[in-house]
Structures are given as C-alpha cells and as structure tokens.
Amino acid sequence: MPEMENLQLFDDQAIRTAWNKEEEEWYFSVVDVVGALTDQPDVRRAAKYWSVLKTRIKKENGQLTTICSQLKLKAKDGKRYNTDVANTEQLLRIIQSIPSKKAEPFKLWLAQVGRERIEETLDPERIAERLVATYERKGYTREWINQRLQAISARRKICIS
C-alpha cells in the first residue's frame, strides 16, 4: 500500500510517513507522533504510552479501526514491521487524547478551526471572508483575489448546470 515513504520532522524528531496513492493521503506513524508529543526517550517507551492510550481510546470509542490502521513501515534496523498509522484526520483525533504541553497548541488550533467552521455553517458568507483573508495573508492583490473569486464562481456554475 505505501507508494512512498518519508521522514518528517517535528521538533527535530523523525516521524515516519507513507503516501497512499489510491487514497491520495499521507499516513503517519502513531508511535512516532506520540513519542514526539510526550517526549518519550525511546521507541519502546513511546510504544508503551501508545498502548495505554490505545486501550483508553478503545474503551471510549468502542472501535480503534476508525482512528488508525496498520502499514509495514521501515524501522531503524532497516526491516519493515506492522506499525499503527493514522491519516491526518485520525491523527488529529488521537492528538486530542494526549495530555501534553506540545499537544496543547494543536488542541487550541483545532478548537478555533472547529468554532470557525460551525460559524460558517450558520453564516456561509464567512467562508468568502476567510478565503479573502487567507489570500491577503499570502500577499495577493485585491484585483487578483477578485479575479480568483469570479473564476471559482464561474466554475461552480458550470458544474451545477
């Protein structure tokens, strides 16, 4: 299943990742992320922490398969072992369960994004405001932003027809 494997860095700690071409999605080693967020000194302790956390998540949710699966990822010894992995959405759910100072910024960001999306369902005009603000932060001109919004609108009209 993994078409491409990579190492990503989080606070100078390696996180093993694998790209699933069919799903067009990255998968992240849960043990690596848990180890990085909880400052575990080695993989064994990170795996133990994840094991305890996994048991707690199973009790709360009843089913772990909705928040992670397994892939064979390369370990430090060069061999491939079945490893718990999660896609971005699943990983964010796991991070919410980790009591850690490093996880707190993620949790605050998730809460803010969640609030914004709920507000957007109540007032869809906020979506356009967020889009304009994002393009402005990226340095695009007002003229370019207006053209972009018109192009998006035109494409949506064609798709609806």
Structure description:
Helix 1 (30-37) crosses helix 2. The radius of gyration is 20 Å and the shape is elongated. It has helices at residues 30-37, 43-61, 88-95, 104-122, 125-137, 142-160, and strands at 4-10, 13-20, 25-29, 69-74, 80-86. It has two domains: 4-99, Mlu1-box Binding Protein, DNA-binding Domain (Roll), CATH 3.10.260; 123-160. It has six helices and five strands; from the N terminus they run βββααββαααα. The mean pLDDT is 83. The protein has a five-stranded antiparallel sheet with strand order 1-2-3-5-4. Helix content is 53%, strand content 20%. By secondary structure, it is an alpha+beta fold.
Topology, element by element:
Layout: E1 4-10, E2 13-20, E3 25-29, H1 30-37, H2 43-61, E4 69-74, E5 80-86, H3 88-95, H4 104-122, H5 125-137, H6 142-160
Antiparallel strand pairs: 1-2, 2-3, 3-5, 4-5
